[in-house]
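Exercise 4. Each item below gives a protein and its sequence. For each, produce the structure-token representation.

Item: LacI family transcriptional regulator (Victivallis lenta).
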Amino acid sequence: MQKTANVTLKTVAATAGCSIAVASTVLNGSRGNTKVSDAMRRRILELAAELGYHPNFASQSLKTRRSMTLGIYVQPKSWRSLSNDYEMAIFRGVEQAARDRNYDLLVLNISSRNLPDICAEKIAESRIDGVILIHSDSNADWVDRLLEVSTNIVAIDQPVPQRTLSRVIFDNRAAVELAVRTLRESGHRRIGFIADCVNRDQSDSQIRLETFRACQAAGTVDPDPALVFDRARCVPPPSVEEHYCQITGEKALRYLMALPEPPTAVIAYNSLVGVSVLHEARRMRLEIPRDLSVLGIDCCEFIDLVDPVLTVIDHVLPEMGRAGTEMLIDLIERKAAAPVVRSFSPLLRTGQTVAPPRKPGSEAARAEADGIKGALSVSGDGD
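Answer:
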């Protein structure tokens, strides 16, 4: 059968020998009491494909009062953009879920300059049915204003509750605990922690630091406070406009390895800092993991581009993006009521940077420590 232009529902119904109501039930998912046999359903679907029938989107939107479009908003700030690995990992999950549920996506700030008010405007204009927030600040006033317009808002990777905001969250405490447990099972107890050294409101980073300190207080790891490299020890601290992950990793490793008793393993609060540690270790002639085990939290594409491959606690960002999108669509279609919260657990991705520690009393280990300290005294702080 040859495809023709402007094929209507009436055309399909007449060709199939059924009523328009029956054809609409099959092709448009119309709700009602119309019953359709399996044979007729197959016939209608086959004929619609042969004729080239497509549902009228404008007509469907008037009936459902939905645009079938979701907005995506990334709060404009330094190092926040859909071009970054973190946001793109979430976006991949968002895109897949939207496609599976027959929704389109509208990126509201691809230039990273649009104000958050654009989200409310697009909802008010019925251009979008809801908004996915990626990397929004905790308790931001503009989110409260947006929630006054609609509760069809989902924030992905947002650890802090906010009014009727639906959220997909990551269990940061479990991530640090899994990192500690992984190193402990490899025989490490003197473990260093590299914290976020940028002065900003980053709740997940703070939770990770607090959890490690709780592990120290509980005696799960060596309680020596010198094993924590944080903003107070990072002098001068980097600014958010700089490559702060790289700077933090470099300074942290030099500091930790210069301690009278260096750690046998370190946990980096994110994987980019972990990658920076690996690069600095190479410059310091440290062999990873023979001389030092390194474990990062979060997963990014960069870990596969370094040698050895970094062992990480995965943030499962694509899965969180997919879950957040499904959550938003359920809110739009009134299959759920705000606020909805879903938490994701961490996942260990074994690389090549964790191994049992060398015996501290061995002659080789003592010679190694003396060599490291000598190299540090020659290189200085490297700034």
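Check: The two ends are 74 Å apart (CA to CA).
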